[in-house]
Write a structure and sequence with these properties.
The chain is built from eleven helices and eleven strands. It is an alpha/beta fold. The chain has a domain of 126 residues: Rossmann fold (3-Layer(aba) Sandwich), CATH 3.40.50. The chain has a six-stranded mixed sheet with strand order 7-8-9-3-10-11, with helices on both faces. A five-stranded antiparallel sheet has the order 2-1-4-5-6, covered by helices on one side. Strand 1 and strand 2 form a beta hairpin. The two termini are 34 Å apart.
Length: 265
């Protein structure tokens, strides 16, 4: 039996912000088709790790490196010339949606095609028929096609986040990096966003790496969980193995009082 290939590899990576150490010698392999939750207390390094993988920040100099699609993205504290090509295959979803407020939802989603059609055509809204069709199909896929003509800043948070997911579909991303995509949403909208990500993973085979504060969402939607604590990996395994003792070790004894009914035994 042939195992799926690793689409992302993080090896011995550290990251410092002046005197503060955000990550300490972290290693992680993400296989094609996985849906992985990154969890951990605030300040544990979850968002930092995701930003490093996306090339939005650079790792510390040293022997650590990051690979994507078998291409070296970062090494010795620097981005390589492969980062742009890999970014075209990787969609990033931000907590605050990252849509352009004054543009319509359709235009925001169509911007996902810029890597293929060129900047100037996108700047003037000269969208090819293929892009127009892909944008509307993506909006329909996430359930907001009826909002295509609305300015982004008139939409609810959940609608904007679904638009951000639709943009990654138009981008034809193979990997989605989602940084706390439901942190600003109400519970119903949050569940809908997580269900869309899971559907894209299971039915389209997209690889999803998502940071979450909600442990119950990690357990419900992701087969694998990676937990960070003080910049180090404290757990990496199946969500079914993430028991109460491990969670208390990661979050501290207060976790037992904070986590509602339905926590792992």
């Amino acid at each position: 039996m042939t195992l799926p290939a690793a689409v992302l590899s993080v090896r011995d990576v550290s990251k410092s912000y002046r005197a503060a150490r955000a990550l300490e010698r972290v290693s992680l392999e993400v296989l094609r088709g996985e849906m992985i939750a990154l969890i951990g207390p605030s300040g544990s390094g979850k968002s930092t790790l995701l930003r490093l993988i996306a090339g939005l920040a650079t790792i510390d100099a040293g022997k650590g490196f990051i690979d994507g699609f078998e291409q070296r993205l970062q090494e010795n504290g620097r981005l390589t010339d492969k980062i742009r090509a890999v970014r075209r295959r990787t969609g990033f979803i931000f907590q605050q949606f990252n849509l352009v407020d004054r543009l319509s939802l359709f235009t925001n989603v169509a911007l996902g095609s810029l890597g293929r059609i060129g900047f100037w055509r996108g700047l003037f809204g000269v969208w090819p028929a293929e892009t127009r069709a892909a944008a509307m199909a993506a909006l329909a896929r996430v359930g907001v096609a009826d909002r295509a003509g609305q300015r982004a800043n008139t939409l609810s948070g959940g609608q904007q986040q679904r638009g951000a997911i639709a943009r990654t579909l138009v981008q034809q991303a193979e990997v989605i990096l989602a940084d706390e995509p439901v942190a600003s949403l109400d519970p119903v909208s949050a569940r809908r966003v997580m269900e869309i990500l899971r559907e894209l993973n299971r039915h389209d085979g997209m690889t999803v790496l998502v940071t979450l504060h909600q442990v119950d969402y990690a357990l419900r939607y992701c087969d694998r969980v990676v937990a960070l604590k003080a910049g180090r990996i404290a757990y990496d395994g199946p969500s079914s193995g993430l028991g109460r003792d491990i969670l208390v070790n990661i979050y501290g004894p207060e976790f037992q009082d904070a986590f509602w009914e339905g926590a792992p035994p």
